[in-house]
Amino acid sequence: MSMRTKKILIPLFRDEVAPRFDLAGEALIVAVSEDGTVEGRQNLVLPNASADDLCDLVLSRDIDTVICGGIEEEYYHYLRWKRVDVLDAVAGTAEAALTRFLAGRLKSGDMLFAGGDSRV
Amino acid sequence: MRTAPCPSNALAPDLARLSEILGGLPIGIAALDLDCRIVFMNKALEDLTGFTSHEAAGIPCHHVLRCGLHLRGVRQAETAGRGDEPVKGRETDIIDRHRHKLPVRVTRIDVKNEQGGVFMFLEAYEDLAPLHDMERRLKDVAGAGELISRGEAMERIKKVLPAIAQSDSPVLVTGETGTGKDLSAQVIHKASPRARGPFVRVNLGPMPEHLLEIELYGRVAEEGEAVPGCFQRANGGTLYLSELADLPAAHQAGLVRVLDDQTIIPAGSDKGVRVNVRLVAATHKDPEELVRAGVLREDLFHRLSAVRVHLPPLRDRGEDVEFLLTHFLSRFAARFKKDIKGFSPRAIRILRSHPFPGNVRELKNIVEYAAMICQKDMILPAHLPGHILAALKADEPPVPGRPGENRGRKRS
């Protein structure tokens, strides 16, 4: 039986998780095997910042999990309704968030900056 | 209130005092260090963002405040206060902890030390949500401000009105009662360079001639106290005469003179007063017919009809009927706090076949009545005003039995 690859999308603001889903100008897509090995990663520059377009991208690329900062309620529930896991209100660099996610420890509201509480 | 490590330990007592002072202000305030990390937030900002100052301390502000202004490239958060354009009263939005997007107004102040060097920033966030809500509410109560349509006939007119608004020529608006003549006049005024001036609506309904003269041109009283007429009240703006056909012939000649000279002579005076008014007149009758009947002076008609707008009756507006029914239902359902999802197919059929002699005004009133008495989640025929059902019955072939016998009975 072949192992299923999971896809994670992180909207970016420079090297950080974008503080706002609707204003992200870039996105990182990471393919992860079931044992947690990163199989591939792709940086996408988005033509314009738009929550609608980003939702379309999530669905068209069969993304399993979105790791993002602030996201409006309607987009959050839309993605959840489409069976996409959403870990929102995550603040930190994309690498720190990804590492924590792969270790199975990332939760919504995690603040990964030194000086902040680990969870908000 | 916990604060992040402050830029200089020597300033710690000042910061503690500052956070105490700002704590009681009704406007949200964030103190940021030079790297734009949160030093502290006051209570109002905690309430606005949903984050506590304790949680946010030390975090880059764009992850806590999530302010559109910081992230849309107008100002990069980390270059704040370093010579970029000042942020003062800029309207933008934030997303709070509960995933709500909120409109805010942001102002940033540089805080300087005794040597004049900036050592921190204060950012003030005013919650604009209550103001936006009030704006929406007032617009809804006024029920005016825009011509609602979807059909081609009205869309064509809506495209032409802004162009008409740019000139100063008199306008004649024609159309049956309830087609939107008043609203069109307001749209012309609002889109015109006179929008900041007054919009004065005068109903030229039956009134004694001497009072009508005072209403139009004002009066200079014996004591010297002037009573301004509608032309003076509309000076610098637009005067809308809502029913031109009601204006007696003698006053029509006066109106021609005003249109030619832009000068009025108030009652009790022999001196002309110069006015700067754009005239919009309306009638629900056919103006050519009025001229033929001698009710409307031909010279006035020609001056007014340089720009003419004819509003089609609702029965000629095809798809607009259903669109307007839905539009007004959502408005009245919200006003009456009812969860009405729509019209039943039979109610829609009845309304579609109704000729609406009172046009949009009648349709609006019908929907208001139906929404008012409806206790279900759907407008049924029984919720429609009696005259609609009576008209329908009159058109139907006679049914044996007493009139009204079938009301409320289930259809087989």
Task: Tell me what you see in this structure.
The complex is a heterodimer of chains A (about 120) and B (about 400). Chain A has helices at about 50-60, 75-80, 95-100; strands at about 5-15, 15, 25-30, 40-45, 65, 85. Chain A is globular and about 35 Å long. In chain A, α2 links the parallel β5 (about 65) and β6. By secondary structure, chain A is α/β, with parallel strands linked by helices. Chain A has one domain (about 5-100): Dinitrogenase iron-molybdenum cofactor biosynthesis domain (Nucleotidyltransferase, domain 5), CATH 3.30.420.130. Chain B is α/β, with parallel strands linked by helices. Chain B folds into 3 domains: about 10-135, PAS domain (Beta-Lactamase, 2-Layer Sandwich), CATH 3.30.450.20; about 145-310, 3-Layer(aba) Sandwich (Rossmann fold); about 315-395, Helicase, Ruva Protein, domain 3, CATH 1.10.8. Chain B has 17 helices and 16 strands. Chain B has a 5-stranded antiparallel beta sheet with strand order 2-1-5-4-3. The chains are: A alpha/beta (about 120), B alpha/beta (about 400). The interface of A and B includes residues 16 and 73 of A.
Main sheet: strand order of chain B: 2-1-5-4-3
Mean pLDDT of chain B: 82
Tell me roughly what share of residues is in helical segments of chain B.
Answer: 25-40%
Shape of chain B: flat
Radius of gyration of chain A: 13 Å
Gross geometry of chain A: globular
* Low-confidence residue ranges of chain A: none
Overall structural class of chain A, as computed from helix and strand content, comes to alpha/beta
The assembly state of the depicted protein chains is heterodimer
What is the count of β-strands of chain B? Answer: 16
CATH homology superfamily name of chain A: Dinitrogenase iron-molybdenum cofactor biosynthesis domain
Largest sheet of chain B: 5 strands, antiparallel
Question: What's a concise summary of this model?
Answer:
Chain A is 23% helix and 26% strand. Chain A has 120 residues and is α/β, with parallel strands linked by helices.
